[in-house]
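Mods, move this if it's the wrong board.
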Amino acid sequence: MKKHELHELVNSGVLQKKPDPELLLTELKALVNDGFLQQLPNEFFAFNNNLTWEVIYETLLFAERRNLHNLVAKHIEIFNKQNLDPVADLLLHHYKEANNWEKCVYYASMAGDRAAGMYAIEDAISSYGHALSSLETIKEIHGLDYCLIKEHIGDVYLMGGQLQESCEAFQIALSIWVNTDKIINKPKYVPWKFSNRTQESLLCRKIAITFQELSKYDESLEWLNKAINKLPNRPGIVASQIYASKSGSYYRKGQLQEAFEWGKKALSIAKRLNNSKETAFAHKTLANAYMWAGKFDQAIKQLTHAVQCYEELEDIIGISTTYNNIGVCFHLLGKLDEAGPNYAKALDVCRMLHNEVMMAVLNNNLGEIYLVNGQLEKAINHFELTVAAYNKGKCEKSISGLALVNLCRCNRAINNLSSAEEYLKRGQVLLKEVGSDALIAESEIDLIELKLDQKQLKNAFKLGQETLEKIKKLNLPPLLVRAERVVGNTLVAIKDIENAKYHLLESINLSKKINAEHEEAKSIIAYTIACIQSNTQNKKLNRLLEDAIAILENIGAEFDLAQAKELQSKLG
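Not the wrong board. Structure tokens:
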């Protein structure tokens, strides 16, 4: 403690006028001479060792200790009153030792916010836990303070991917809120503000988000409808948040028209209210729906707007997730040289913030890049990291399901068909539990290709016809490209070449419409194989194959490129 601080503490009434500060300094220097204390630069003093401190501390009566801790805490508050966040943990310690439970609630909540802001999940949960236990000590477990702390705990669990715990915390908060006296419209102890009018809707939305992340989209929509029903007149930005979340559940279910409708409503409200954060979220939600519809140019346009909003806000997580989504767009377009760097940028940020949930997504996405490039060992490593994250509860079921399907593709590439079948079965179990028609249909395409590898031609043909009709009804162009190609391949396998060529040309033309270059190249390869089998080789086919080779060289798809060049040598 500095000399001028002693004077100020006396003048402000925190310390008594006696003993005199000058006398106190004299005594402190005497203790330095006796070896109990050491004098630091700028008139600071400290104990020579912890043992000295412990012996002196243990000689104090409990009442004296509590009084000293209270005095020290008040001193810290006075000298840091302009910025209490950095000293919240220290104040929590002193007020806890002083048995000042009301202050403990305040500073534990503040410390929890600070830890959450640094993505220190365990520290945040611990601090909020101190706030709850302090409320329990003063018999305040049914009011707004308890409700709001539970909500913040739910937010942190959601951030850390602990979805079940998050859902439970939000539901407890909602239960307390519903049974709280609404006449008392502000909390007593926590440092947070909230809107009495929209709190119930917000809690319903947060519960819906946990179900969405658990891939339980019907339950998510039920809670979002409850949130909408509880909205007051002129709800403001809360309506935008709920509508965007509803759009997100719909596009994950593959119901794109509804996704567009609710996404556009969300964007309109956020723009009207000039709220950059919710505008960015609405742009991202709409972009995802456009991706599912195969409208990649519009998706990238929406994501570019979202990045601009997040950069204005300096929202690192927002920037990271948007870079991932841009990577997905380029990935689906077959522009791997642009997809990879966007994934890498996002992954670097997530590693820095220890965001394991998002890291699982990015590991799956990067694994797909390595798979296309023929770097199977790296691909398998990334997919296994995603599956491991799911086993730890740090990954969505749908993402783990996709990673398992990708591991099936890796094993097919090395002709390990028994392992491929095992991975595919595990992946399909998860995707069926998710209930997304689009993801299930995509895994069925992989099953057809596996059946072809296993020479189960009748099964492959029957499943191919069923899957194609299903995907046509879903109206998902990126999947339809693959479905047309795989049906063409089954027809080639059973020697129905003319029908095969029809489906393969459909796949080529559709991939051109949506600018999916990699899919176009793969469909050209399949069409070339069909033409060779039917002896219909010509200059037009040569030029078509040259186009495919140019695409594959440009994007670095080594595995497919090798196959295309082998076909080119056969064509002569």
